[in-house]
Amino acid sequence: MKAVLISIRLKYVSLIRSGKKTIEIRKTKPANINVPFKCYIYQTLPKYGDINNFDGKVVGEFICNKIEQIDLQSAVNYNLCKKSCLSYSDLIEYAKNKINLYGWCITDVKMYDTPKRLDEFYKWTGDKDIRPCQNSKHCNEEYYDYSEDVRACRIDFDGDNCPFLRVQRPPQSWQYIDIN
Predict the structure, then answer these.
(1) Do 106 and 37 touch, CB atoms closer than 8 A?
(2) Are 140 and 172 part of one and the same domain?
């Protein structure tokens, strides 16, 4: 099943956790997934200062049940700014000459007691039948195991640690992931 992994700074993760932030503002929106969809929250590493146990990990999830297009040339209402925890000037600065932004509506937030590592998630391949180490277009280490009558990977036969399909790097903004 397709989901989204989204990178969010600690300041905004805290606001989501508290329930104050109910809209996440982005420059783009997912085009190949229908709402509602699940978003996993990756808490970014800080630019400066100490790193805590949750930085650089997936710390929670939410359901995005609606995406609103925001036209910055028309009047942006106070309610949007309040729900996104951003001022109008913050929106303009973030947009950097883009006319439209997107407000991802946040519902059903679940924060984890124990964060998850990125490599616990799989990249979205676009093919629901492909699992780790089962298709040569993803793995140069493929071989055929005649005893099991299956294609497999020399690196990791069962695919649990496949380096080709595991998420290794955080998304710049967001990315599709497979949560089967």
Answers:
(1) no
(2) no
Domain extent at residue 29: 2-125+166-178
**For the segment 79-131, what is each residue's pLDDT rounded down to a tens digit?**
899 999 999 899 989 999 888 999 999 999 999 999 999 988 988 866 544 44
* 91, 43 Cβ separation under 8 angstroms: no
Give 120-158 pLDDT, tens digit per residue: 898 886 654 444 444 445 555 555 555 656 555 555 555
Q: Tell me the pTM.
A: 0.81
Q: How far apart are CA 15 and CA 3, in angstroms?
A: 22
Q: What is the DSSP letter of 118?
A: G
Residues in a beta bridge with 142: 153
Which amino acid is it at 135? Answer: N
Are 16 and 109 a contacting pair, CB within 8 Å?
yes
Distance CA 94, CA 101 (A): 9
Same domain, yes or no: 18 and 102: yes
> How far is residue 159's CA from residue 157's CA, in Å, rounded to a whole number?
6
CATH number at residue 26: 2.30.130.30
Number of domains present in the structure of the chain? 2
